[in-house]
Amino acid sequence: MALSPTSTADLDSRPDETTARRGLLPLLFVGNSAMYALYLGVGGVLLPLQVEHIDPAAKVANLGLIGGVAAIFATFFNPFAGALSDRSGRRNPWILGGGLAAVAVMALLGSVATVLLVAIAWCLGQAAMNFYQAALTSVVPDRVPQARRGAASAAVGLGLPVGSIIGVVTASAFSERYRTGYLVLGLLVAAAAVLFSSCAKEQRMPAKAPAPLREQAAAFLGVLREHDFRWAFIGRALLVLGYFAVVGYQLYILQDHIALPDGLSPAGAVAVLTPVSAVAMAISTVLGGVLSDRLDRRKLFVGISAGLSGLALLIPVFSPTWAGMLAFSAVNGLAFGCFMAVDTALVTMVLPKAEDAARDMGVLNIANAGPQILAPFVASAVVSLGGYTPLFLLGAALAVLGALAVRPISSIR
């Protein structure tokens, strides 16, 4: 794809190499770790426990309903949050505001006791986190040169395994007091937001004039007409949906489908599986990010890792045992870590315009955040119709389709 005068190639003229060396990458790591701790701790443990507490008999359907409603909300809100960040010419205030708001909405979420109020509170939680996430995600294309994008993406990607351990272990520790668990995770995001906005200095970009609502909507849809961006969006959405359809229901899978060793509770099993996956994910995140920079190959790593994720999701189909779940967690962690690290670098290289980076990354974040919330809705339908084995098969199929989706991308190797 030919790059216009305002394409992502211009991003290299803004950040310098010292910016990426002097503390920005560790701050990105901390900021993303806190974000994923909340997403995984809430989505993987606290929300399923709260839904089960409200109505144990209808837990699968209710969790799917809450996830579906929140997915629709997040789909529209994420690019809107990115556009507001672009318009202001700032990132740090939105990161700080979203992080502080997370405390209030997590406290609210932990205090409600009906399915309707849980859905409303989780939508508000998505609003706060989307402001935080849209601005934080845009820091890489804003401030990191392309030659360092793999390393920066590795720092961002490491946030997932580390954040998942922190989030799931924290949530599991408060499984009997989930209200406190919600508040702790919200405070973690707030602390990361304060740290980032205090230490990561930003050069204010020119503020953009407000555009008519119809023009903004057309711009949101227009970015998906860009060939390479569209295929990157599709590949990310497919793999993330398959991954979180299974991981989001992991607690219920361990309750209802897997025979656990004596003395091991489902919440305790989640706390074991998460570090196994996270260690594998951390290794492949670093190796994938660094090697993709060194070899200047993105599509190869993204395609192979997505395909490996599909194979990993077949392990519990052939071995629906505790040992099979351990093997699945390790292999899937290796695959997903490499995918997220390298795919993030790939995406920053196919953004159509530098001045719309946050808005376009917000559109891309729909493929990341949206499926995480949509996954319970899809999973509940599959489980209700055929049980957990078809859920693993669906996840594997989506991962393979995600691997194939990167092939049409032409501007990146």
TrEMBL record:
Native organism taxonomy: Bacteria, Bacillati, Actinomycetota, Actinomycetes, Kitasatosporales
MF annotations from Gene Ontology: transmembrane transporter activity
SUPFAM superfamilies, sorted: MFS general substrate transporter
GO annotation, cellular component aspect: plasma membrane
PROSITE patterns linked: MFS
Protein name: MFS transporter
Residue intervals of the Major facilitator superfamily (MFS) profile domain: 25-413
Membrane topology classification: Multi-pass membrane protein
Keyword terms, alphabetized: Membrane, Transmembrane, Transmembrane helix
Gene3D superfamilies: MFS general substrate transporter like domains
The species this protein was found in: Kitasatospora atroaurantiaca
UniProt xrefs under InterPro entries: MFS, MFS_dom, MFS_trans_sf, Tet-R_TetA/multi-R_MdtG-like
